[in-house]
Amino acid sequence: MLKGTNQELGRPHNRRIVLETIRQHGPLSRAQIARHVGLTIQTVSTITSELHERGFVDLQPGVPKGRGFPAPSLEINPDGGYACGVYVTPRGVEAGLIDLSGKVLAHEAVDAPQMTADAAFARIGDLVEEMVARCPRDRFIGVGMAMPGPFDIESMSFVGPTTMEGWRGVDVHERLQEAVPWPAFVEVDSAAAAHCERLYGVGEELFNFYYLYLGVGLGGCVIYDGQVVRGAWGNAGEIGHIPLVPDGDPCPCGNRGCLERYLSLEAHARRTPIVGEAGWLEETAPVLRSAIVTIENLFDPETIVLGGFAPPELRLKLLALTAELPNSLASRQDRVHPRVMLARCGADAVLRGAASLAITEVLSPRSAVRSQGATGGAATDPFAKAGSARIA
Ligand SMILES: [Zn+2]
Predict the structure, then answer these.
(1) Whole-prediction pTM value?
(2) Which of 57, 328, 344, 355 could join 85 via S-S bond, C-beta 3.0 to 4.6 A?
(3) Which CATH number fits domain 80-193+348-381: 3.30.420.40, 1.10.132.100, 3.10.450.50, 1.20.1050.10?
(4) What is the pLDDT of residues 69-120, one digit of tens each?
(5) Assigned CATH for 204-342
(6) Distance, CA 66 to ligand 1 centroid (Å)?
(7) Hey, which bits of the chain come out as E strands?
(8) Cα 239 to ligand 1 centre (Å)
(9) How far away, in angstroms, is 272 Cα from ligand 1 center?
């Protein structure tokens, strides 16, 4: 279980943990929540009163059984808040609306290959407005936007078929915040998908895992103690350019033998017309296994989740290649989960994760660069009045 902290500065963290616990396991009484998250009943009561006051959770009267006072129980109020997820890729823009339970209520996609930043942000402003129009405006919490990673690395972010060409020098967070009048957050797509998996997928049981994002390129993200690990610039876990094959294929990044030259949808599309899919799987297998072992040795995760928007059938075939893996830190006798698992969230993981991220960030702001200025001064911050949203 995720644990809270009894220090006052931990309040935003506790609020997030309590709300997530109610969403995942509710209805729960305050005592049950306290046991789940390791906080005192008093601390939990303070937080749940706050969440209830804001309309984020419903309070159900206890059902009388036997003698004694039945404890009231709390459950998530799906209509208590809404958020919008936006996903910008080299192929276009998508937007989705989720409620507080994480359900996707609306989804819109615009095909527009290699959009300029100006065109994209104009579109995003309109799309977000369309989404907000579908929910009570005063219940709208914020916007989370995802983009292919890694961010801002000259030769990896803007050059080649897996990147946002022409977006060099664009301050994405600033532009997003200008385009929408709501708290706005930006994340690498693999981190958004990992966040979704953490909230609604394998993360219901696991709090430390690595999410391998198989998209046009190859990305990934570490979930540690239930939270996305970002690194200094939001790129932690982005393994696509690890040069795993000595003297291998030249990569647009300037190195040779990068992982994503072999293991990605771009590689799949490039190689299958030449060697067939079976041939591609055969040549990719050793690279995939090395990647798995590398990730395990670096991050010591409970498991590696195979996700991204690669079709489920393809991910199943890749999973089969990991039936036998070389030795690593993960070769433990006491393993509970397999070393590699399939992601449980579907194709909308990035949108859902990006939207959920906006909710998480508003409820439980962190002091990282990307969120600065987003929660501060935002009239719609549901906790701004309490002043607590600014404690990071
Ligand atoms: Zn590379």
Answers:
(1) 0.86
(2) 355
(3) 3.30.420.40
(4) 778 899 999 999 999 999 998 889 999 999 999 999 999 999 988 888 999 9
(5) 3.30.420.40
(6) 66
(7) 28-29, 57-60, 73-76, 82-89, 92-99, 104-111, 140-147, 184-188, 209-214, 218-224, 227-229, 303-307, 340-342
(8) 9
(9) 20
